[in-house]
Amino acid sequence: MKHEFGPDFVWGTATAAYQIEGAVDRDGRGPSIWDTFSHQKGKIKTGEHADVACEFYDRYESDLQLHKELGFDAFRFSIAWSRILPDGIGRINEPGLQFYDRLIDHCLSLGITPWITLYHWDLPQALENKGGWTNRLIVNWFSEFVNVCTKAFGHKVKHWIILNEPLASSILGYFTGQHAPGRRSFSNLLPVIHHTALVQAEGGRVVRQNIPDAQVGTTFSCSPIDPFTLRDQAAAIRVDALLNRLFIEPTLGMGYPTRELPFLAGIAKKVAKPGDMERLAFDFDFIGLQHYFRAVVEQSYLMPYLWAKDVSPLRRNVQTITEMGWEVYPESMYRIIKQFAQYEGVKKIYITESGAAFYDTIDQGKVNDLARIDYHQNYLRNVLRAKQEGMPVEGYFAWTFLDNFEWAEGYRPRFGLVYVDFRTQQRIVKASGRWFQQMLSKEVLPD
Ligand code: NCW
Q: Which of 161, 287, 305, 411 is least surrounded by CB atoms within 10 angstroms?
């Protein structure tokens, strides 16, 4: 399979700081909103937190060695903002910088290219105390953080991702309250969306200014949206605007999709400052797509603003669903790449995440996760189809390397190619990890 993607295709895995690092009170790290949230009763389904997680903070050398053995040449990780700036702004915590410096050096020494995500949902708690993403000053706070990181690592890291799934962090964090900081109100929604979109563009500008030869991107969660019946087509168009278009279109200079979602007009009327609409645009070198499932929706007047709701895979009698309740539907990968490749401003696409949580069992020391192999193989076939049709898709990062803390779900859903026993911290490469290892070990000759 590998050779069909060509010699320059990037093969990686993706991770996030809070989900794997542990060591939350070590070497001067400040608390983040996820520390606070996960320690509040009832917020995490299993009552767990990520104080220890995969102990990646202490085990990164052997873990990266394993990553290398599996044959991946790129490793995507995020920087925990509160390790670098414990109060979010101001005082720099040198040991925090040193940790990421060691991690980067270790990647480079193994021939693994580091891809840094600057924000994967763990806002410093000190900044949340000042309003977090509802406070417009977040644009300055984030720029300061990006400035510190790019000045420290820009000479050796050339692949930078500004945000991980801005839709998830803004909506789940500040509107539905399912994720940290767990705030729920409509009045938060428009300011948070707008500040997040501004931060995305502004962050891009800081990276480009400090590292002129960097490849700068940002990532979006995305799903093709199908109407349940013919009568639900308008609903599908609205959901598509919310789930797929909300954050990319302002970046491309197209503004917010207000025609389909009239409530967004409140941003220009009440939230934005003069000149903001221009500041939302940034010419990213690449777009990261994070794709897992398709959505099927129907019209519903019970849902304010959107007038649509999800038709669950269970209701549709779908047999192939993951532990997250997400439908496995490989063709959706091809369709979503095609949808995003149609934007004129999208120059390059990387699949910065895709993967599946299935119930894993250990049998005689082995995890025979055939369903996960199927998932990656079939989703990859659809990446290949898009590529062969000329769409500029240039890499695939499996979510994820190690089983980890799956946010509000706790440790139950396991997405990893490597099984982690959270009691002993033992790692067991799953059959899916071996599948990648075999596939990636094949030599690809340049054209
Ligand atoms: S939950 C989620 N995930 C998983 C997580 O482990 C990872 O850190 C994320 O990047 C796997 O990949 C992402 N994404 C949330 C998707 C839902 C977005 C819908 C927003 C609600 C309107």
A: 305
Q: Nearest to residue 13, comparing CAs of 104, 75, 106?
A: 75
Which atom of ligand 1 is nearest the CA belonging to 168? 20
H or E element, residue 186: helix 186-210
pLDDT, tens digit, 9 for 90 and up, residues 163-177: 999 999 999 999 999
Q: Which of 165, 246, 399 to mutate to test the pocket of ligand 1 (most atoms within 8 A of CB)?
A: 165
DSSP per residue, 310-342: E--TTTTT-S-B-TTSPBP-THHHHHHHHHHHT
DSSP 8-state symbol, 52: S
The verdict on ipTM greater than 0.90 is: yes
Task: State the distance from the centre of ligand 1 to the C-alpha of 68, rounded, in angstroms.
Answer: 26
Specify the DSSP element, H or E, that contains 295.
Answer: strand 295-299
Measured in angstroms, how far is the CA atom of residue 14 from the centroid of ligand 1? 13
Question: What is d(CA 245, CA 266) in angstroms, rounded to the nearest whole number?
Answer: 17
Q: Rounded to an integer, what distance in angstroms lies between the CA atom of residue 424 and that of residue 412? A: 16
CB-based contacts of 140, cutoff 8 Å, min separation 6: none
What distances in angstroms separate CA 254 from CA 233, 235, 277, one per listed residue? 23, 22, 9
- Which pLDDT tens digit goes with each residue over 208-254? 999 999 999 999 999 999 999 999 999 999 999 999 999 999 999 99
Q: How many CB atoms lie within 10 A of CB 146?
A: 25
Q: Which helix (H) or strand (E) holds 366?
A: strand 366-367
Give the residue whose CA is nearest to atom 21 of ligand 1.
168
CA distance 310 to 325: 12
